C-alpha cells in the first residue's frame, strides 16, 4: 500500500515462479489487469496517527482476507510506502511534512499491531517480514518516492544501457529519488532525494517542513489548482486535458517551475533522464514541454551540453504501491524480475 497525504492506495500482486509480478483480482473485484487490483481510499486523517494506522490496517485486512481465501497457504509479505522520511534499518518514520500523525513513529510495529487487533491473528514473530501461516506479517516500510523510483527503474528499465535516473513524483508535495543502474541511492541516513524542499524563494510562503519557499510549494497539486483558480488539482488536470485555456496556462506555469528545479538537480547530479510521476504527471506534454525549455535555459551551459531526457513515469500513479510490494518481496528473499500488466495469474509462487 501507498500512504500519501490525502489517499491510501493499495493492491495485491502475486509473484510467479519466474519472478514476474502480476496484478491479481480478489473475490468481488472486477476485470483482471493491474488497475482492477487497485483500491484507492481518500482520507483526511493525515494528522491523526492512530486513525491513519487504523485506516491502513482496515485496508490491509480486506486485502489479507481476500488473499487468504484464495491462496490459504501462500507466504504473504506486506509492503508499505509512506510520504515520510523512513529509517532504512528500523522502518521507523523520522519526520513527515504531510503525514503529521506519523512523525517519529515505529510504523512496522504500529501497523502490524493494528492489523492484529482487527483480525485477532498474532503477529509473525520474526523480523522484519517473515511469514508464518495463521499470523500476519510485519510490514516492510519505505519512503514513497523511493518505492516508486524502484518500480520505475526495475519494472520499466531504460533500454539504453547504464542508467542514472532521477525520479520526481508530484502530488501533495514533491517526492524524489536518485537511481543508479536499478538501485535507489537512499543516502547516508536513508533520507536522500527530498528535492521538494530545495529552497527556490527564501522570502516565499512557509512550508509544512518548517522552511520557506520550497520547490514543492510552486509545483505541487495544490499549487497547480491555485494557479488555475480551481478548488482541486484533479479538476484542473481534467480541464487542461480537455483544452481549457486557463487550466493549460496553469499547467504550463507549473511546468516552468518544474523545469527550474530540474535544472538545479541536473547541475548537481548530471542524470541521463528525469522520470516524472505522481498525479500531476497525468498532464503529460502540457507539463513536460515547458519544463524542458526551462531546464535548458537555467542549466549552466544548458545550450552546449547534453541534456537529460524528461518523460512521464510508465507505471503512473501506481508505482508507489507496486514498488512497496516489490521491495518487500525482495527483502523477504524473492527477487522480482518483471511486471505483467496483462490478465491476473493464479500460478502464484
Ligand atoms: Zn519544505
Automatic annotation (TrEMBL):
The name this protein goes by in its record: Glucokinase
Keyword Ion transport set for record: no
Native source organism of the sequence: Citricoccus muralis
Organism classification: Bacteria, Bacillati, Actinomycetota, Actinomycetes, Micrococcales
Family: Belongs to the ROK (NagC/XylR) family.
Single GO MF descriptor: kinase activity
UniProt-listed InterPro entries: ATPase_NBD, ROK, ROK_cs
Entry keyword set: Kinase, Transferase
PROSITE patterns, A to Z: ROK
